[in-house]
Amino acid sequence: MSFFELQNISKSYGRAGIDRQSVLKGVGFDIAGSEALGLIGPSGSGKTTIARIALGMDRPDSGRVRFMGKTISYSRNRAKRIHFSRVQMIWQDPKVYLNPFLPIRATIMEPMAAFGMGTKKERLRKADHLMEILGLPKSSGCLKPGQLSGGQCQRVAIARALSVSPKLLICDEALVSLDLPQQVKIIKILMTMQKEMGLSLLFISHDTKIVRRLCQRILYLDQGKIKRTRVPAAANPTRY
Ligand code: ADP
Ligand code: MG
Predict the structure, then answer these.
(1) Which of 36, 187, 198, 220 is most exposed, with the fewest beta carbons within 10 Å of its own?
(2) Which residues contact 90 (CB under 8 A, 6 or more apart)?
(3) What distance in angstroms lies between residue 58's CA and the mean position of ligand 2's atoms?
């Protein structure tokens, strides 16, 4: 049984006979527990569509997504809510999707409350612990996203995603808005989480260099098809 598996996924957008566009054409791959899998491909090749389908936000036209031995459901039910807590996502630009009015400690605590995890005191403790791991000073907890740098906001987004102890973290071009030292810092944090929490990663990027440092296996997507798979030399974030 695979930990996470996309089986023969196809997806089109648009209206039949008018502007129908086939975006994914029979994509299949799996991710093992604690594995970091890279997904590389040119813009428009279907990477974000794969992320949305893996997350359960979008429904494929055909094929299925299996997670921990079960096929994920697309109806609004309990199973889907559980899927949402186990698979988390970090998007490209945190400033766009973090609530600008919510202080960052509350931002990190919000998903735990939404999934009914722990008491308020436990949620506070976990938020503070994650802020510490991600190098966000305690005093910044009451600041709002607009008062932080892009790199700090992305670390808030990562803390928020990790707060519900996901099994799989999908990062879609999550580091593009950061400078190199920030990227290295975050990659090191992700590698530590992978080891210590047994976190699996689907790391989507057009930056081959970053993916080679972080991932145990890399898939190359082109025009909605997986063209090849590579195993890079041992992952090591310090080799910049
Ligand atoms: P990538 O992330 O690799 O750049 P995407 O998965 O975002 O690629 O997009 C692949 C193709 O699918 C693009 O041509 C894009 O315009 C199209 N597409 C993505 N989402 C939608 C949507 N909701 N409606 C229509 N077309 C879409
Ligand atoms: Mg994309």
Answers:
(1) 198
(2) 154, 157, 158, 161, 169, 170, 171, 172, 174
(3) 14
Q: Tell whether 240 is covered by a domain.
A: no
For residue 239, tell me if it sits in a domain: no
Q: Does the predicted TM-score (pTM) go above 0.85?
A: yes
Q: How far is the CA of 116 from the centre of ligand 2 (A)?
A: 31
Atom number, ligand 1, closest to the C-alpha of residue 49: 6
Distance from C-alpha of 205 to C-alpha of 49, rounded to nearest angstrom: 13
Number of domains in the chain: 1
Domain contains 208: yes
Other beta carbons less than 10 A from residue 13's beta carbon: 12
Q: Which ligand is nearest to the CA of 91?
A: 2
Contacts of residue 153, Cβ cutoff 8 Å, sequence gap at least 6? 94, 95, 98, 145
Using CA atoms, how far apart are residues 187 and 66, in angstroms rounded to an integer?
Answer: 27
Mean pLDDT per 10-residue section of the chain, whose length is 240 residues? 92 91 97 95 95 92 93 76 85 86 96 94 96 92 94 92 94 86 87 90 89 92 93 61
Domain that includes residue 206, residue range: 4-12+22-230
Domain presence at residue 127: yes
Beta strand 4-13 with 62-67 is antiparallel
Tell me the CA–centroid distance for residue 47 and ligand 2, in Å: 5
Query: Which residue, by CA, sits nearest to atom 13 of ligand 1?
Result: 44
**Would the CB of 47 count as within 6 Å of ligand 1?**
yes
Lookup: tokens for 128: 């503070």
CATH assignment at residue 93: 3.40.50.300
DSSP annotation string for 10-21 = EEEES-TTTT-E
